[in-house]
Structures are given as structure tokens and as C-alpha cells.
Amino acid sequence: MVGINLQEGELLPMDRRVISPERCEDLAADDNEALRLDINRASFIVKKRNLAVAKSYKLGSLWLMLDPLLHSLVYLFVFTVIRYRTNPGSVMIGLALIRGLQQCLVYGATSNMDFTAGIKIERIRSRAIIFSEILHIGNISFHLSIGTVLVVLFLDASYWIVPLFPIICVMNGLVWYSLGRVMSPLVKGIPDFKNVVSYIAMLMFFVSPALYPLDQTEGFHRTFCLYNPFTFFSEPARAIAFGEEGFRLLDMQITAAVSLLLMVSFFYGLALIDKQRWRYSTWE
Amino acid sequence: MGIDDVDAIRITDLSIEYYVKGKGLRKSKSEMRGIKAIDGVNLNIERGEIVALLGPNGAGKTTLLRAIGGDLRPKSGKIETFGRVFTLRGSNPGIIPHLTARENVKLLAGAYGVRLENLQKFEQEVEDFCELGEAYDRNYSSLSSGMAGRVGFGFTTSLEPEILLMDETLGVGDEMFRKKAEGKAIEFMNKGETIVISTHSLGLVKSMCSRGVVLNEGRVVFDGNGPDSVKYYLEEIVNVGS
What we know:
The structure holds two protein chains of two kinds. Chain A has helices at residues 31-54, 62-82, 88-110, 126-154, 161-189, 193-207, 219-227, 229-242, 252-279; strands at 3-7, 10-13, 16-19, 24-27. Chain A is mostly helical. A two-stranded antiparallel ribbon of chain A has the order 1-2. A two-stranded antiparallel sheet of chain A has the order 3-4. Chain A is globular. Chain A starts with a strand and ends in a 5-residue tail after the last helix. Chain B is of the alpha/beta class. Chain B is built from seven helices and nine strands. In chain B, the strands form two sheets. In chain B, strands 5-6-7-3-8-9 form a six-stranded mixed sheet, sandwiched between helices. Chain B has a three-stranded antiparallel sheet with strand order 2-1-4, with helices on one face. In chain B, a hairpin with a 2-residue loop joins β8 (211-216) and β9 (219-224). Chain B is globular, with a radius of gyration of 19 Å. β3 of chain A pairs antiparallel with β4 of chain B, so a sheet runs across the interface.
């Protein structure tokens, strides 16, 4: 038992930390108190990020929603001019999800640069950072979904899209974030790879069913889309909103296998945070 | 009383290397060059001690503080700390520049575990310590570095850490603030908390520190009381170097 001996037999429990080359282990005196603190810290980190946006502009945190919406509308305008037969609502859904993919993939691959998470005078537990990362991805994905939901409702989408699209966006964001995290050791090891991740994100725009629903793709594009996790989010969302039937083309065995891999990469990617944080602490 | 009840910090055979990139494209451990910053340090610090780390620039003082704070991975050896450890490096506990000092204190308090029932008392304590007047309600980014330092120092010390690591922080602000900060440190000492301070301020070591540890090239070269460590530092490090 670790603690301060106040009087004979009276021991006040204390936090204890053991630092070794393998890990930095925090042993809390009170596990419930430690969990409460970590949740508070995660929420502080997310608030801090939101405030940085909110306080920088007149429109404040409205930009968290406006920015992805305006991007999508610009792309929608351009691509509906080019492909006039496409359902604009379906394109909006694809554009919102692809923007989530790009943001979260790049963020996951490059977010290992600062592990203080803005709390600078006390080392915070890695699980607080993990909570904050999940909250952050959830937050940006949720805001990204709001504008799209409003637009597609205008375009006669089913009301089911209101509760379901934010959930789909958050899941899409978490999947691409964790895949980015899996790539992050490469980015840290070879800084040039950061640019490669941006190119991968850009390429995904064209090889995913973002602009064209799955049933409008063909050949290699179709095959790639069947293995592409993006399809597992875009097609159900289109089906919910407009009754499109592209999701019926998904092969259930491939979908199950890829989903299993994604779950493994999700947990592996999050577990990497603690390892990387420790390993890189003495790197230039 | 067992050793756990006495020791606040226990450092065993600690060595730390920073890794800098070599000529290759990859940053892998095999291609990186290690620079030794701490070399085989053994140190036990008891609860309630105020320990000064002395040494020339590059001796490893800041590295040792960061390692005790859990910010750096050792190459070998082990550090154990007992109690919450706060590191005052610079004067920023995580302040958001767009908010006022008051708003920052309120927001940050939760992130450092101040309970809701103690929040009002905590906020008042920080405000009283800072003595910023109307500037306390101005955006933090508009404060001078001395004023900002007061907020950071006031916030951290009001948290009442069990172990406080300070990196030259008492040098922040004007003479009046320095006196206040020293008073706060003495208050800490009287409460039985542990302070480790890295400093070049020899007067401060003589007047405040119960113990002085002199570091040179990453090694402990002297460990004794405050005045003796200053004497050793001046005679064996500064004079030899000059």
C-alpha cells in the first residue's frame, strides 16, 4: 500500500507512478476518481479545440458545421453540372462522408505530434487522450453531418436520415481515423509520408462511391468499391435517405471480413497512442 | 514507518538519451543518433524536501525534471513517484489565449481535478494570488508575460500538488511577485510537500532549499545541503569553467 502515514495505522492512499523504459504506469489511489478526472480532461481537450475555432471567427462554432457544408455545396455544384443525371442528395451524402474520410484519415496519421493534449503541467493518462480523440472525431463528424442532413431533407430524403446519418458519419470518421493511426508510425518514421497520406485521401475521392452510387460504378472501380469500407457507410446512408439499392450489391462475406479487420485496426490504432507517446518522447 | 511513507521520488540508475535524426530517410532507432542527457543518476528525495538542481546549461537539469514528471522515456533505470506530480515549466498550464484569466481558471480547474464544491474557493485563491485587478478579466493573450506568469503560477500552486517540479519559474514577474512566489513555496514546504527546482538563482538555493544537487554532463557530482551545493557549484564548476 502506498500512502502518507498520518498517524499510526492511518494511511491516506496516494497516486503512484512507475517510469521505466517500457512504459509510464500511473497507479491511481482511487480508480473512480481517476476515471472522472480523465473524462473531465477529455472533455476539456475537445472544448479547447472547439473554442479555438469559435473564438477565431465572428460566426464562432457555426463554422464547425458551415465549413464542411459549404465545401460539399461547391463540389455538388461542380459535379452536378458535369453529371446532370446524378441525384444531388445522393451526391451530398457521398461528399459529406468523403470529407469525413479525408479529415479523419489525415488527422489520425498525423496527430501524434503533441501528446501533452494541451494539459501542460501534469502528465495525463493515455486513456484520457484516447477518450479525447474519440470525442474529437465524434464532434467533427457530427457537425459535418448536420448541414448535409438539412440539405438532403430539402431534397425529399426520408426523415430516418435525421437520426441515422450522424451515427453513420461518426462511425465512418472513427474507422478512417483508426486506419490513419495505424499509418502514423510510418509518418513519424518518414515525415515525407505525411504528404503520401494526403494523396491517398485525395485518391479515395475518386475510387470511392462518393460521387456515383455503387450501382453506377463498373469494372475495377466496382470491385475496389466492394472492398472499400467507405462503401459500407455511403450505400446504407443513400438507401435510408432515398431508397437507393446500391447496398444490395455488397458481398456479405467481404463486408463481414473487412469489418472484422476494421474493428481490429480500430483497437490497435488506439492502443498505439500509448506506445508511440512513450517511444517518441525522446525523439528529435 | 516503511520507505513508501517517506520517499516522494525514487530514481534508480537513470539514463536518458535524446535521439536525433541521422542522414537516412527513415527515422528509425537504428538510423538515429543518441545524445546522452542523463547518465546513471541515483537519487532519493524525501517528502517535504526542497531540492535545488544546480549545474551549467546542458547539465541535464531540465531533462531530469521532465523525466520525473513522466514526460521522457528513460533509456535505462527507473523512477518512482508517490503523489501527484506537477511540472511548472514556463507559466502555461494549458491556458486558452482567447479567454480571460478568470474563464481559463474556471475551465482548467475541472481538467486538473478540482471538485465542484471547492471550485469557488479555488478560483478566489488564484485571483487573490495573481493580484491582477481588472486585467484578470481581460483576454489572456493581452496580458504581459509577467502577468501571464502570475496566472500560471497561481493556478498551479493553488492545485496543491504533492510534488512540484519547477524549472526556473520563480524568475517570472517582478520583484514583488517573486517574493510572493517564494512565500508560496515556503508555505508548501511547511505543509510537507516536496519541491524540486532547477535554477541558476544561487541566493534562492541558499535561502530556500534544504538540499542541493549539482549536475554536470548528466551526472550527479554533488549532493548536500543548499549552501554547500552552491559553494561546490561555484568552486568546482563555474570557476573551473571560467
